[in-house]
Structure formats: C-alpha cells, structure tokens
Recover the amino acids of this structure.
C-alpha cells in the first residue's frame, strides 16, 4: 500500500514545474520519504551485513538538511537519555537522536579542522595532494637548460637564433597531449567497473613514472618529445580526475578550502622540481629523472586510499559505497545521510538529463530506478542542457584566465625567462645559471606560500557576519579597536573572501604588476637596480596571482558540474587550460626573443581581458552547501548575468551615496539595519542584487 500511495503522490507532484537546483528530498512528504527509503533498503541492503533500515531512515531525515545542520550550543552528555527512532520523527526532531560523538563529527565537518577528520579521509587527501605535487614537479624539472645542447638542439640564451621552434614544440607537446589525450581518454577508463577514480589515478601516475624515466634516457630530441607526449597524458588525466575525486570524498563545508590543495601542492611541486633542478644543475637527465620520485609515491598511496562513494553509487555498488562512507565519515548514521542524499540526487540528475525540455520541468519519479548514462550520451549534454552549457562557458573562461594571467611564463619556463631577461651580469656562465636557478627556486617558494593563503580566503563570508562571528574565539585582531576600525576590517574581510572575488582581485592586481614589470624589464642591462626591482615585482606578481588565478580555476571547474557529467565537464575545463598552456609553451620562447618587456606588455592586455571575461560571464558559486547546489547558480542566462554586472558598473557614479549604504548594511551588530531600504532609484538594482546574490 505505501508504494501505491507514494507513486500517486509523486505523480501529482510531477505536474508542477521543477528545475534541477534543489535537494530532491526537501519537498517530499514524510510518508513518501519513508516509503522510498524502505524500498531502497529492501532492494539493496536487506540480508546484507551493511546499513540497517533504521540507519537509512535516520539518514534520509538528516539529508533533508544536508550540509546545513543547526546543532544546540550546549554540548550533549553521553549519559543523557535520547529518544528512540520512530517513523513519525521529522528532519528537525532527528537531531535529538544523535549521539555526542555524532554531533562532534558534524561540528568537525563544519569547521576548518581538516586534521580532525577520519584517518582514511586524510590518507585519500594525501594521495590527491601527491598527484598535484607530481604535476608541479614535472613542470619545473624539465631540463630546459641542458637537454637542447645534450640532444643537438642549438638555441641561444636570448632565444634569438637556432632551433627555437623545436625547443618550443618539445615543451608544448606535453600540454597539447594533456589537453587532448589525457582528459578525454580517461573518462571511459574512470567509468569502467574495474578502475574507477583510484585506478585512473594509478594509470596516470604510471604514465608519469614511465615518461620521466624514458625522458631521462632519451638520445635524440625526437625521443625526448615522445616521452614528453606520454608525460602529458599522465598530467591531463590527473588534472581531470583528482579535483573531482577530492571533491567527492570531502564533507560539503570543507570542499572549497581543501580543494585549494590542488594549487598549493602543484606550487609545492614546482618548488621541489626547482630545487631538484638546482641540485642537478650540471646533469639535465637527473633533473628529469627526479620527477619519478613523487610518481612512485603516488602509485603506492593509491592502494591505501578510498574510492569515491559517488562513483560507487553511480556504478550501483551500494554496499561498498556505504562501507566507504563509513570509513570517510566514521559515524554510520552520518554515512547513511550522505548515501541517501547522493543516491537520490543522482537519480534526479539522470531523470533530468534523459528528458526533453518540456518534460524536464516536471519533478522526477524517484520510485523508478534510472541506469547509468554512457559517455557518448553524457558528452553532448555539455551543450544540449542549458545549465551545463552555462557551466561550460564559465569553466572555459576561468581556466583560460589562468593562462591569460601570464604566470605560466614563470611556472613553465622560469629558468629560461631569467636567462633571457639578462638579469645577471656575471661573466661566468655557470655562475649565471646558478643564479637564475636560484631565482626560479625563489619563485617556486613564493608561489607555494601565497597559494596556501587561499585556504583562508576561498570561502565567502556571510553578508551580515559580526566581528564575534568572524573571530568566534574572541581573539579579534588589533584589540582594542574603535567601532570605525572594526567596520573597516569587516568590509576588508568581505572584499577578500570568496571564489569569484578572489579571482577578480587576483587578475586585476596581477594586471597592474605585469604593467609595471613591462617597464622595469626595459631598464638597461648595466643598471645595478634592475635585478632587485624585477625580482621584487615578480614576487609581488606571484603574491597577487597565487591565491586567486592560481587556486580558483580548478576548484571552480570541479564543483560546477552535476554528478553524471562531472568527468566530462572537468575534462572540458582541463582541455582549455592545457590548450592555453601548450600555445604559451610554444610561442613564449619566440616571444622572449622578441623582447621580455614586449612579451609582458602583451600579457598585460591578456590579463585585463581575462578580468573582463570573468567579471561579466562567470557566476559566483559561493555559499553553496553541496556540490549539487551549484546547479542553481546556472539557472540564470550568462548574458543576463553580464547585464546585471554592467548595471553595477553604471552605479559607480553614485559611489558617494552607495558607500554609506554598504557601511550601514554590512554592520548589523553596530547599529546598522540589515534590511535597510534606499529611496534612491539609482541604487535599487544594487540593493536587490546584493540581497539575492551570495557574496563571492
């Protein structure tokens, strides 16, 4: 009887208009939800030594508020008597059923304390970090100052004569391979029942391991080019899978911050590769071979870490998915919460992707299981579904903005840049190489340090947060401070926090630094201040770039896609990022021959172009509590988003009126009215959008 009632009720709901943007469990009636979970248990868990029906029923009630649980401030006592589960308990009352250890687990998930998470989750995060470190190491330890002479490619230090195109092609082939072969070949492997996320990363690490060994033994530049091609397959595959894998194992409230680890450990890898290059500065083969070290460690770690529970659910391996979630979340009822949430969200997405536009406005029937969507069916969905098409455009822009910023002139070709820019005036070539490699190490260290800053800034702050909320421990900085200083600090905090804001500020400040470097590089070679000035502004440029244009693109691209389209979507983003890297590696050596100052002048314009594209066409993803909630950000057409941002620019002329309004609006604790209304017609658009759009 419950089944007939459930189907009838859901069929009635199907007549209402619906879009893929909300938790599919939020609007279900309690009886329907209970019947659905009972059917799920009977079909997949009954008679198995895995999840119990009560755990799944408690989990589905928790899942209605997934990622946004409100716990009582008073800590529960182990000896307190808690009510027993009954089918009449709703999503509010189910919190009272939780044991103190479960409440503590939720608090840890909602905090910044990632080191307090279960051991299996930490090991899996470590494997993801090692994968990104391997990529950075391979970027820096490329032997560019040694292999041309060793393999018969004649180039000059300033790249003005010789086989400069051969040199560029050998460097570029890695990124063209990473753009085309790595991302789009890895999807079928990743979706196979045997390999999954772990297996795909293992294969990618094997490619990197073999390519570094093969490259170090090359006897011709053609052989080295082939080794670099296979290295690109490993790089592209890791970049496509690891951010997704990492996002799928993390609690919702930690995804933004921990996903910064991709950029941070890539930067650490660049630094480690630079150190290896410096140590083996007289032997380019050992420089290249050193990249096998992190690849070997990654091969070992893939055996110790957990598979993605989302991938297991997509494959229909529900028992193993639940057991994996128990390892990742430690508490069984919290694992059950995430299991049922993922399961019904995937079913909802599959229904949405397989319907025509007319039927896709109807609510899905969660009674009927929808099977796996194949690669050939998922690939066209990038452009045929409005929500995915908007995500594809935004992903392409944020990925290309990283290349337009000009940072990879230094990340890929730092040693060549410092040599071609004639920053050292020593007459001893060996001493000059040593100094240039030292500058490359300095860049790598600065990139690693400043990338870590994004961990604290990547998540947006609540619009009306007070100083006590920003610093819950009571350790407000600059104590004692005046009310005016507190208000200024709050506004500065909000200016820095959030993905989109961080990316925009990074591109804007980076453009200014590139403009300054353009003129500093024009200083005469015999100017004793040239080295110090250029080095200082290169480090300032790195400081501007790393927390935003460095950290945001891969994080953004990993979180904006639905479950079934995540691999294809991330591959799309990686394609554009590495395609830009390939063209940069191909043409920059020739550009250095044209002149370092002119090259930086061109990238000044590119960086400003990236800023404009991000401002007008990239929606914010801040304040979303889960990967699935990202869908709502792309319900608005990008051109409408751009028009709204253009209207914001038109209000700049009213800045003298707007700033007091913002000051009052943002400081509710200090007498400001958070629901302040303005009578100025010119400000109504700003106020309306400021209330509806998350801060990011």
């Amino acid at each position: 009887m419950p089944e007939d009632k459930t189907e009838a009720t859901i069929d009635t709901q199907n007549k209402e208009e619906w879009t893929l943007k909300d938790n599919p469990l939020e609007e279900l009636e309690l009886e329907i939800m209970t019947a659905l979970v009972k059917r799920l248990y009977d079909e997949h868990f009954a008679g198995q030594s895995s999840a119990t029906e009560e755990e799944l029923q408690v989990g589905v009630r928790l899942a209605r508020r997934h990622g946004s649980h409100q716990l009582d401030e008073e800590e529960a006592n182990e000896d307190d008597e808690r009510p027993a589960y009954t089918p009449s308990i709703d999503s509010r009352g189910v919190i009272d059923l939780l044991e103190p250890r479960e409440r503590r687990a939720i608090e840890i998930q909602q905090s910044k304390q990632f080191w307090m998470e279960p051991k299996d989750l930490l090991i899996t995060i470590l494997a993801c970090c090692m994968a990104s470190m391997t990529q950075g190491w391979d970027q820096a330890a490329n032997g560019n100052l040694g292999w041309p002479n060793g393999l018969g490619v004649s180039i000059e230090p300033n790249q003005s004569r010789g086989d400069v195109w051969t040199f560029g092609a050998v460097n570029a082939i890695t990124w063209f391979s990473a753009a085309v072969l790595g991302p789009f070949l890895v999807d079928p492997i990743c979706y196979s029942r045997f390999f999954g996320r772990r297996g795909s990363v293992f294969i990618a690490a094997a490619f990197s391991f073999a390519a570094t060994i093969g490259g170090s033994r090359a006897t011709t530049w053609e052989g080295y080019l082939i080794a670099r091609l296979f290295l690109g397959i490993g790089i592209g595959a890791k970049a496509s899978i690891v951010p997704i894998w990492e996002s799928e194992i993390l609690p919702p409230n930690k995804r933004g911050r921990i996903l910064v680890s991709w950029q941070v450990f890539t930067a650490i890898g660049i630094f480690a590769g630079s150190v290896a290059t410096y140590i083996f500065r007289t032997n380019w083969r050992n420089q290249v071979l050193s990249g096998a070290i992190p690849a070997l460690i990654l091969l070992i770690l893939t055996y110790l870490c957990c598979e993605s529970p989302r991938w297991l659910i997509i494959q229909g391996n529900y028992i193993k998915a639940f057991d994996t979630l128990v390892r990742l979340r430690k508490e069984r009822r919290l694992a059950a919460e995430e299991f049922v949430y993922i399961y019904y969200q995937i079913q909802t997405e599959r229904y949405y992707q397989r319907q025509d536009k007319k039927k896709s406005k109807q609510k899905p029937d969660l009674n009927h299981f929808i099977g796996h969507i194949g690669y050939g069916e998922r690939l066209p969905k990038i452009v045929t579904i409005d929500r995915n098409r908007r995500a594809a455009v935004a992903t392409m822009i944020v990925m290309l903005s990283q290349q337009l910023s000009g940072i990879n002139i230094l990340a890929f070709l730092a040693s060549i840049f410092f040599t071609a820019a004639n920053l050292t005036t020593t007459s001893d070539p060996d001493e000059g190489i040593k100094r240039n490699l030292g500058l490359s190490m300095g860049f790598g260290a600065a990139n690693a340090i400043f990338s870590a800053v994004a961990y604290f800034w990547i998540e947006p702050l609540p619009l009306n947060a007070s100083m006590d909320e920003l610093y819950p421990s009571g350790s407000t900085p600059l104590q004692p401070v005046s009310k005016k200083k507190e208000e200024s600090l709050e506004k500065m905090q909000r200016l820095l926090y959030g993905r989109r804001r961080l990316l925009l500020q990074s591109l804007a400040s980076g453009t200014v630094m590139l403009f300054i470097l353009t003129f500093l590089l024009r200083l005469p070679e015999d100017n004793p201040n040239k080295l110090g000035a250029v080095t200082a502004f290169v480090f300032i440029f790195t400081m501007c770039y790393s927390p935003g244009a460095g950290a945001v693109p891969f994080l953004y691209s990993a979180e904006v896609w639905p479950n079934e389209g995540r691999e294809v979507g991330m591959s799309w983003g990686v394609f554009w990022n590495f395609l830009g890297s390939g063209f940069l590696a191909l043409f920059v050596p020739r550009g250095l021959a044209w002149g370092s100052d002119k090259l930086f002048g061109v990238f000044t314009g590119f960086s400003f172009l990236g800023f404009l594209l991000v401002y007008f066409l990239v929606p914010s993803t801040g304040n979303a509590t889960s990967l699935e909630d990202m869908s709502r950000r792309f319900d608005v057409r990008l051109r409408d988003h751009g028009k709204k941002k253009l209207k914001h620019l038109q209000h700049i002329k009213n800045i003298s009126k707007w700033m007091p309004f913002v000051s009052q609006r943002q400081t509710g604790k200090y007498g400001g009215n958070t629901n302040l209304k303005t009578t100025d017609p010119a400000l109504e658009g700003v106020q309306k959008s400021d209330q509806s759009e998350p801060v990011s």
Observations:
- The radius of gyration is 27 Å.
- The mean pLDDT is 76.
- Residues 221-249 form the longest helix (29 residues).
